[in-house]
Amino acid sequence: xxxxxxxxxxxxxxxxxxxxxxxxESKSLTTHHNLSLGFNAxxxxxxxxxxxxxxxxxxxxxxxxxxxxxxxxxxxx
Length: 77
Description:
The chain is of the alpha+beta class. It has 3 helices and 4 strands, in the order E-E-E-H-H-E-H.
C-alpha cells in the first residue's frame, strides 16, 4: 500500500511515506500564512528522498492523511 501522512504543527510540517515497504520521513518549516506551502515543501522533500517525482507519487498514492494542531493551539493560546 502507498500512503502519505502529513502533520502540520506549530513549527514543523512532517511528511511520512509508507511506499512499497519503504518508510520515508521529511520535514519542512510550517508556513502559517499559507499552510499549503509547508505541506508541499514537506511532500517534495519526501519525494526527493524516495527518488520519485511528485507526479508519480500523486498518481500512485492510495491515501493521503492530513492532520494539524493549529486550531487547538489557537484555542489554548
